[in-house]
# Entry
Amino acid sequence: MSVAVPIQRAQIIGTGLIGGSIGLGLRQRGWRVTGTDALPARAARALELGVVDEVGIDPDAQITFVATPASHVVAEARLALRRGGVVTDVAGVKAAITSELDHPRFVAGHPMAGSEQEGVEGADGELFDGATWVLTPGEHTDAEAYALVQAVIGLLGANVIAVAPSRHDALVALVSHVPHLTAATLMNLAADAALEDTTLLRLAAGGFRDMTRIAAGHPGIWPDVCVDNRAAILSVLDALTGALTEIRRVVADGDRPGLISWLERAREERINLPVGAPPPGETAELRIPVPDRPGAIAEVTTTLAELGVNIFDIEIAHSAEGGRGVMVLAVDLPSAELARKALADLGHRVSVRRIGE
Amino acid sequence: MSVAVPIQRAQIIGTGLIGGSIGLGLRQRGWRVTGTDALPARAARALELGVVDEVGIDPDAQITFVATPASHVVAEARLALRRGGVVTDVAGVKAAITSELDHPRFVAGHPMAGSEQEGVEGADGELFDGATWVLTPGEHTDAEAYALVQAVIGLLGANVIAVAPSRHDALVALVSHVPHLTAATLMNLAADAALEDTTLLRLAAGGFRDMTRIAAGHPGIWPDVCVDNRAAILSVLDALTGALTEIRRVVADGDRPGLISWLERAREERINLPVGAPPPGETAELRIPVPDRPGAIAEVTTTLAELGVNIFDIEIAHSAEGGRGVMVLAVDLPSAELARKALADLGHRVSVRRIGE
# Structure
């Protein structure tokens, strides 16, 4: 997306992974970026890495990104608003911040992007390319300020959507916060059992690995998230325990039709869950049983690379009970048939399905 | 593993995916395999596909695999025991079957392998290679019968472990059955919310996809599993809702130290969760940030293929909030350093970690 933006100066407050990636991305697009950090050594490192042009405060910055830990956002955004220009933040919970900072030039935001890398060392100017970036404007946010923030984020390649702040918080509680807590809960339950019986973990196959994968992440932001989004998280936890209690009843009663229709619904919904990067409806999923030999995965991925097909996502789907699995590749829809044919010519059994319709 | 097995005739009852894969695997190793199925067309198709040598009953078979749906196992195993030889089954729940069939020549079993392919069309003689295959002998099972079943399963490449039947059922409830129900529950909760707000699914990034992936499977065996393993599943569901209630308290109280230590423990345990295929301690994990361009994944996998490194598992790990992610490859430990060096020479930032110690 190419947007004519008449401004060229940005201020970053907090040059960690997200702030650093914003700085790097804007510099790569010709902007002048100034940054500070509560840790002077981190700001100096950001300068060394080319994430900012200069350490300090740019009084002429037209946009300030407050990319500090959530607990510092309100204070830092207030200082930035006093200096001028539009101000946005990147905290993962939005209702409290948006209501505390209901100012015409403040536009709260939440980029749905991250990395396993930590800190400014992981800064990546393309981190937001194709990511969803939520903006949660307040009642008094200027349309002009909103448009400016949206345009700058668009430059970074993100897809911007506007959501009411409380709605944002309820949604991320459901698709991010409570799933994270649930993954950790399942992992700890299994760990308790494994203390008594080390066989357990040998039986933990593909499905269990998938369900607990995010529990391997750093606790990092979670204590803040759980405080800032307490109400929404408690409400989703209640809904989850309520739903599990209902499933307990279905299992206790041996209610086969109830169980089947409930599993069928989940299956339908999961199959149609859109993949992250490209817009829904433009992606296809290729499923290819994987032979267990060196080079099998390379053969498939190389074939697609030679055709210029970009693989958005790749996973080995195991059945709940393990097994070697099926390679699932997300590719853009126009390339899917091309890819299928080339792989079929090599003897692979490939099925193709359009996603997210 | 090479085992001298003095017998060469096997009987398969139920030529679906699992029965068919056993038949094919044994035929590929020189055995004579006879098979039947409740659906004559399926048995005929098994013959066509070379899964069995003959359709029917072999009165001289030294081993019978009962690979029917769980509800038919006891009746079919009784018939097979009357004919002679040792008899084993492949049902996913073991306590009831083992106690109903406590016969010297019956050895209950559960291969922890599956496939997304369905039915005999998906039969694969290598399906069990490297898989865990649990045997749950009863009180009266002969040592000789056990040794025979173990040897034949060993021929198929599986790693055999013996577990008490009730313990098996408790373990699979924890690492397979309840996680499956939980994945479906999370997916259906999100689907309910998405009815009111279609934004929701655009916010459902990597972590949510991982946690709900197994919900995309066929309901297939689950109603039987939930009936046969009811007690263990109810008990794990109770433990899960209990643990979630405790986490609710931690969140409600804003108990940061409690939350952090609990998340840290889950993180440690998940990082050390062994991967499926090779024995723990012999596997390493390579983590490589993935550039978003055609050919990036191919470059990595091809490099390893050229070195003869077998990739046991591959996934793109996203942070809980999305982003492009990091490719995680499981390879055998002796190859890990070789692989790291070759990838580093190509400019990739690779970290290596030994798994499952």
User: Anything to note?
Assistant: Confidence is low (pLDDT under 50) at residues 276-280 of chain B. Chain B touches chain A through 136 residues (CB under 8 Å). Residues 165-196 of chain B form the longest helix (32 residues).
